[in-house]
């Protein structure tokens, strides 16, 4: 079998399905059977809660009883209850039982909600829940980045009028006064980039005050004798009416006691208002509470659920308004107890993360329901672990955790908090001295994380990796790992039974590890190989030497230190006496890098192997043709010799068409290829075919001689690793393979990225999407300088200006980030905001002599702190940061760009850079803030003042961690999604729609309601609904996609901008014109802030806006947007492109509506010429255009006649009424569909 599951069919994840090729037919059918199992029909039960009418609730047999609890705690009429049980015929239901396992529970059963006695834990949960209800509309948790809250602003622009509520408005022609004029800063050509509109004020957020204060009382905890009366804790409350009360939480509920601030009297007051719920009690003593709480809950349940569901991973906002700090007992308590997840309200209850992470991996996965359960558990634990690790890492850097080796100096300290091990990214004990010291120690954790990700995706049973999260916070890099049971009691030397702890000087191996790692060898393309240990004995490994195997006390086989899972990148690893291929040398490689850990990305390895596979097939096919030709000429078959493989050896793509030309130039190659494929699949018994395969294998560097199989030895070029003599040949081959892969990156991947940008299949809009585009093609960000140089030399450079600009801004902000990291390490906590604002002034402000403001108490504290040698990591005590100047910072940025990216920026200040590369300061501010975790006050900054700096320390609100972690995947859901996409591409919309709906169900099953992949799913569903004519459904799905994108990716992420555009289209189709315009204006504002006006996507956006304005007869405004779109399209698609022809046509239509026929004719002629040249006279587009030209000419002539008539006969002329037509909505919609690519037309 030709490496079928790795090389060309990317189905490694689907271990459960048939091998590779059977996947398309067999795989799907078995899946459809399985899916039916899941969709057990739901049923309805009646719920009877105290004091409310019974109501119906739809449930599904898979649900747990606990999920009904959650629903009740969220419903408007039962939300104030937390401590209750559900009873069926007097029997209490087990919270963790699945509904289908409960006897007698069926359609129509009555479940009673029964109040249960409180415990301390239940009372705390109750108070926390009430607090959450009181704060449910308050955005401060989202600004502060806690509890997985994040911002969403869609509802402000739609006024909540999407979907059903939208239909209730009168459907008539919605042309009665809508104000269509956008704010000045949104109009084409505006240079202003205000920041404040990024977060429009939501009127719902003006808090309705229910209480003034709700805190724990100072009388806690209850003394012994009160405990024996059932007192659990005491609360202190101040109502809106200024009534101060003290409340006892007892096992029976909440009541007023007679204590005051200074005297303790726990006896019940008269009346005591004993209530099972705190809300009931407060409603009785405070009329304002009753009124406002009811109103608040009404509003809360009206919000779209997606505005309030927690996201799986925390999203931080880089801007926030000034929020008043209010008293909040729960938050205060959280800060002092280590609250880790929703379940632990009592300090001292910590989770065994390692056990949880590994146990979920061991769950069965034989069929779909099992796999869903397993993936759901894995995902949940991972997101909890990431949250706990982030919290711990911040605590470590803020100095709130005691080190486990407190005697050592700060950089070497290690920490354990909540069963997670934390280490700092410094080179301790000269571990990385050979590899680049601190720079290597900084890069190792992310490499290790990539390794953990790769092994996790292969998911071999019996092989375990550590939970790993890498957190960058306040200039420090912290690695958080789960702890292998027993590892802390032993010395590392004794526990490592596989691999090496000293980079290959001593190496050991272990059969069980070899057997487990062998299963990862093919999917990860890692070659089994031998190395020598210190006694010169041969040791066999199936990973890099640093990869250590440790058997924990739990008997599991763990691997750790996976930083060299992927082979080294020779372009950044100069080796004495080794020459790189000419493609690399021409670009100035190899280059010296900061460290020796630079390795190739997994995506590159995949692409390289695929490229080699095509080459292999081509070689085999050409040889077969030669053999055939030789047979026909009856010469000796070997006289021709094997093909010379070196011609296409190094994967140099002469042009992207190379393969095609080859096929066209050699007759019969296609048949020969088919032959080659059958031949490769044979068992190789025929000697002739064996020879063909052997030659092709040799040519492409396969490790096997009988089939295509490329793997890499990750230890090649590792200092300290020695190979036995008998593998010299093999090592040579491997070295060549590595050189070829490095050359392939430069000669194939970078050009293909640029080509994708030219034909707009890759459209990066900001730093993050640019990085993603690089990574998808296996290009590391350290190649950014090389990519920019390549762009600079491209003939079509003008059409790549947007890409170049984004690249430059990314390069500059990354250099600034590197400098900022070391800058922050020297700043103590009390000076943090001053230091950050000073850095931003030096970086972005035109003010030439930015001076730092030292905090006034600086001098006092300096003397005291001298004595403490042992500082926490995040507490430098120097004020060196204050001496940074703008010119010095920019010198450093320029030298950093040169030394790290090998790219020359010839500028000495921010203003020169902005001028030279056409950047905008708002974009640079956004990029640096996101990369470093800074949160700034949202207000208008004057960057260009030469008299005062732009930022003061009051403008820096917070500094957040930047977190990297593994994203566990929902594999089955993903396969459904892919098959759905494939079906849609083949034109089977209905089947595609069903598959994608199924994928959506499975995604929800694994990820919960919020996730990036669900967002993609909803977007595609909405598009399909729309194409199939179900506009309302399209609107509802797209609304969810927008909300989810805002919440999970961020309110101004490029994907969110695109989602806004799609939603506007569906709104327009639904007749909600003013909403469509608001959404388009929002998208345009965000895009201006993120990347400025000069971007190909802006043309599409402006065409959309122009068309909608044309539809509401705002012709002059419409022309401003459409003409801007025409300019941008002409720039980025070339004056002869069909997009430009379409733009001309849209402009002509508006001029026609304005009765300016001369201008209309001029534009339509341009369009006609393009159609004629590109498509020929006979094409329907050309004909349409020529018809329209005729029509315009007639109109122009008619108008001229009328004018002449008026001139001749004055006021008594008999004037024919002219037909001025407002465009019909249908025609506008048709054009909107065309420009958004909804109707499939062959646009070049």
Automatic annotation (TrEMBL):
<dbReference type="InterPro" id="IPR033646">
    <property type="entry name" value="CLU-central"/>
</dbReference>
<comment type="function">
    <text>mRNA-binding protein involved in proper cytoplasmic distribution of mitochondria. Specifically binds mRNAs of nuclear-encoded mitochondrial proteins in the cytoplasm and regulates transport or translation of these transcripts close to mitochondria, playing a role in mitochondrial biogenesis.</text>
</comment>
<dbReference type="GO" id="GO:0003729">
    <property type="term" value="F:mRNA binding"/>
</dbReference>
<feature type="region of interest" description="Disordered">
    <location>
        <begin position="630"/>
        <end position="654"/>
    </location>
</feature>
<keyword id="KW-0963">Cytoplasm</keyword>
<feature type="compositionally biased region" description="Polar residues">
    <location>
        <begin position="636"/>
        <end position="652"/>
    </location>
</feature>
<dbReference type="GO" id="GO:0005737">
    <property type="term" value="C:cytoplasm"/>
</dbReference>
<dbReference type="Pfam" id="PF13424">
    <property type="entry name" value="TPR_12"/>
</dbReference>
<dbReference type="InterPro" id="IPR011990">
    <property type="entry name" value="TPR-like_helical_dom_sf"/>
</dbReference>
<keyword id="KW-0802">TPR repeat</keyword>
<dbReference type="InterPro" id="IPR028275">
    <property type="entry name" value="CLU_N"/>
</dbReference>
<keyword id="KW-0677">Repeat</keyword>
<dbReference type="InterPro" id="IPR025697">
    <property type="entry name" value="CLU_dom"/>
</dbReference>
<dbReference type="GO" id="GO:0007005">
    <property type="term" value="P:mitochondrion organization"/>
</dbReference>
<protein>
    <recommendedName>
        <fullName>Clustered mitochondria protein homolog</fullName>
    </recommendedName>
</protein>
<dbReference type="InterPro" id="IPR027523">
    <property type="entry name" value="CLU_prot"/>
</dbReference>
<feature type="compositionally biased region" description="Basic and acidic residues">
    <location>
        <begin position="1"/>
        <end position="20"/>
    </location>
</feature>
<dbReference type="Pfam" id="PF12807">
    <property type="entry name" value="eIF3_p135"/>
</dbReference>
<dbReference type="GO" id="GO:0048312">
    <property type="term" value="P:intracellular distribution of mitochondria"/>
</dbReference>
<dbReference type="Pfam" id="PF13236">
    <property type="entry name" value="CLU"/>
</dbReference>
<comment type="similarity">
    <text>Belongs to the CLU family.</text>
</comment>
<feature type="region of interest" description="Disordered">
    <location>
        <begin position="1"/>
        <end position="31"/>
    </location>
</feature>
<dbReference type="InterPro" id="IPR023231">
    <property type="entry name" value="GSKIP_dom_sf"/>
</dbReference>
<feature type="domain" description="Clu">
    <location>
        <begin position="331"/>
        <end position="573"/>
    </location>
</feature>
<dbReference type="Pfam" id="PF15044">
    <property type="entry name" value="CLU_N"/>
</dbReference>
<keyword id="KW-0694">RNA-binding</keyword>
């Amino acid at each position: 079998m030709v490496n079928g599951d790795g090389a060309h069919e990317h189905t490694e994840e689907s271990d459960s399905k048939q091998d590779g090729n059977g996947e398309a037919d067999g795989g799907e059918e078995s899946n459809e059977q399985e899916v039916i199992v899941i969709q057990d029909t739901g049923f309805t039960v009646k719920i009877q809660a105290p004091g409310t009418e019974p109501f119906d609730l739809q449930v599904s047999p898979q649900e747990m009883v606990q999920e009904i609890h959650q629903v009740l705690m969220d419903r408007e009429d039962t939300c104030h209850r937390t401590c209750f049980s559900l009873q069926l015929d007097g029997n209490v239901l087990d919270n963790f039982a699945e509904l289908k396992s409960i006897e007698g529970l069926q359609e129509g059963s009555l479940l009673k909600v029964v109040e249960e006695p409180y415990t301390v834990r239940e009372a705390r949960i109750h108070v926390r829940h009430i607090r959450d209800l009181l704060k449910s509309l308050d955005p401060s948790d989202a600004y502060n980045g806690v509890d997985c809250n994040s911002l969403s602003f869609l509802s402000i622009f739609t006024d909540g009028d999407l979907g059903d509520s939208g239909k209730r408005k009168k459907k008539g022609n919605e042309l009665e006064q809508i104000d269509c004029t956008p704010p000045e800063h949104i109009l084409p050509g505006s240079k202003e980039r205000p920041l404040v509109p990024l977060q429009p004020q939501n009127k719902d957020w003006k808090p309705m005050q229910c209480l003034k204060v709700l805190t724990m009382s100072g009388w806690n905890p209850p003394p012994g004798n009160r405990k024996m009366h059932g007192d659990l804790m005491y609360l202190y409350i101040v109502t809106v009416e200024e009534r101060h009360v003290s409340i006892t939480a007892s096992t029976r509920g909440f009541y007023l006691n007679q204590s005051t601030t200074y005297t303790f009297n726990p006896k019940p007051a008269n009346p005591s208002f004993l209530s099972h719920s705190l809300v009931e009690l407060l409603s009785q003593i405070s009329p304002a509470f009753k009124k406002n709480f009811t109103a608040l809950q009404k509003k809360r349940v009206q919000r779209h659920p997606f505005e309030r569901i927690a996201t799986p991973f925390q999203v931080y906002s880089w801007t926030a308004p000034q929020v008043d700090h209010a008293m909040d007992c729960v938050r205060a308590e959280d800060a002092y107890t280590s609250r880790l997840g929703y379940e632990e309200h009592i300090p001292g209850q910590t989770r065994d993360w390692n056990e949880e992470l590994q146990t979920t991996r061991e769950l069965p996965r034989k069929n779909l329901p099992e796999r869903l359960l397993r993936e759901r558990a894995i995902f949940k634990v991972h997101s909890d672990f990431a949250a706990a690790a982030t919290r711990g890492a911040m605590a470590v850097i803020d100095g709130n955790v005691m080190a486990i080796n407190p005697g050592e100096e700060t950089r070497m300290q290690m920490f354990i908090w909540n069963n997670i091990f934390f280490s700092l990214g410094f080179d301790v004990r000269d571990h990385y001295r050979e590899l680049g010291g601190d720079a290597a120690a900084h890069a190792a954790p992310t490499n290790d994380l990539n390794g953990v990700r790769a092994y996790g995706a292969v998911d071999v049973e019996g092989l375990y990796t550590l939970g790993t999260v890498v957190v960058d916070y306040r200039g420090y890099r912290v690695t958080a790992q789960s702890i292998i049971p027993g590892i802390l009691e032993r010395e590392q030397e004794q526990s490592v039974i596989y691999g090496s702890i000293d980079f290959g000087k001593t190496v050991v191996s272990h059969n069980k590890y070899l057997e487990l790692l062998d299963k990862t060898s093919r999917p990860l393309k890692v070659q089994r190989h031998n190395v020598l240990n210190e006694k010169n004995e041969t040791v066999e490994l199936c990973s890099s030497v640093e990869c250590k195997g440790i058997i924990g006390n739990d008997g599991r086989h763990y691997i750790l230190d996976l930083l060299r899972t992927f082979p080294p990148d020779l372009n950044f690893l100069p080796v004495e006496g080794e020459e790189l291929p000419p493609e690399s040398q021409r670009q100035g490689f190899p280059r010296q890098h900061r460290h020796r850990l630079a390795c190739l990305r997994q995506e590159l390895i995949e692409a390289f192997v695929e490229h080699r596979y095509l080459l292999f097939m081509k070689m085999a096919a050409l040889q077969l043709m030669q053999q055939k030709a030789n047979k026909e000429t009856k010469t000796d078959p070997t006289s021709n010799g094997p093909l010379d493989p070196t011609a296409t050896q190094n994967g140099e793509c002469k042009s992207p068409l190379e393969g095609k030309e080859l096929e066209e130039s050699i007759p019969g190659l296609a048949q020969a290829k088919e032959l080659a494929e059958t031949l490769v699949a044979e068992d190789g018994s025929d000697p002739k075919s064996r020879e063909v395969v052997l030659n092709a294998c040799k040519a492409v560097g396969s490790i096997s001689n009988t089939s295509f199989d490329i793997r890499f030895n990750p230890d090649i070029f590792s200092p300290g690793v020695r190979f036995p003599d008998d593998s010299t040949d093999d090592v040579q081959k491997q070295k060549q393979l590595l050189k070829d892969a490095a050359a392939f990156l430069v000669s194939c991947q970078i050009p293909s990225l640029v080509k994708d940008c030219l034909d707009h299949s890759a459209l990066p809009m900001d730093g993050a999407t640019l990085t993603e585009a690089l990574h998808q093609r296996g290009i590391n960000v350290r190649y950014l300088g090389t990519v920019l140089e390549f762009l600079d030399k491209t003939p079509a450079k003008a059409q790549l200006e947007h890409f170049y600009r984004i690249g430059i801004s990314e390069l500059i902000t990354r250099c600034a980030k590197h400098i900022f990291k070391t800058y922050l390490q020297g700043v103590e906590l009390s000076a943090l905001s001053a230091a950050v604002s000073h850095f931003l002034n030096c970086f972005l402000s035109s003010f030439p002599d930015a001076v730092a403001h030292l905090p006034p108490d600086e001098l006092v504290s300096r003397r005291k702190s001298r004595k403490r040698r042992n500082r926490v990591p995040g507490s430098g005590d120097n004020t060196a940061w204050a001496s940074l100047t703008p010119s010095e910072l920019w010198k450093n940025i320029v030298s950093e760009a040169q030394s790290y990216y090998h790219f020359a920026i010839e500028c000495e200040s921010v203003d020169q850079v902005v001028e030279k590369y056409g950047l905008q300061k708002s974009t640079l501010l956004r990029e640096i803030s996101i990369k470093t975790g800074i949160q700034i006050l949202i207000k208008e900054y004057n960057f260009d003042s030469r008299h005062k700096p732009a930022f003061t320390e009051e403008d820096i609100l917070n500094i957040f961690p930047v977190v990297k972690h593994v994203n566990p995947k929902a594999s089955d859901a993903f396969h459904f999604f892919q098959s759905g996409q494939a079906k849609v591409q083949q034109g089977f919309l209905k089947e595609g729609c069903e598959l994608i709906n199924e994928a959506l169900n499975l995604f929800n099953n694994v990820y919960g309601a919020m996730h990036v992949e669900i967002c993609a799913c909803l977007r595609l569903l909405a598009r399909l609904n729309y194409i199939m004519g179900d506009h309302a459904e399209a609107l509802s799905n797209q609304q969810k996609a927008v909300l989810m994108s805002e919440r999970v990716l961020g309110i101004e992420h490029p994907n969110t901008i695109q989602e806004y555009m799609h939603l506007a289209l569906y709104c327009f189709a639904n007749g909600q014109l003013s909403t469509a315009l608001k959404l388009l204006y929002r998208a345009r504002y965000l895009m201006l802030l993120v990347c400025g006006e000069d971007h190909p996507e802006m043309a599409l956006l402006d065409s959309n806006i122009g068309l909608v304005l044309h539809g509401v007869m705002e012709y002059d405004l419409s022309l401003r947007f459409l003409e801007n779109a025409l300019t941008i399209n002409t720039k980025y698609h070339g004056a002869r492109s069909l997009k430009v022809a379409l733009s001309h046509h849209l402009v002509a239509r508006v001029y026609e509506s304005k009765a300016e026929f001369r201008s209309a004719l001029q534009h339509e002629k341009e369009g006609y010429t393009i159609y004629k040249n590109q498509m020929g006279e006979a094409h329907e587009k050309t004909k349409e255009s020529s018809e329209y030209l005729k029509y315009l000419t007639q109109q122009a002539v008619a108008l001229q006649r009328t004018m002449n008539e008026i001139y001749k006969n004055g006021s008594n002329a008999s004037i024919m009424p002219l037909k001025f037509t407002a465009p019909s909505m249908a025609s506008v919609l048709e054009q909107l569909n065309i420009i958004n690519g909804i109707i499939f037309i062959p646009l070049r």
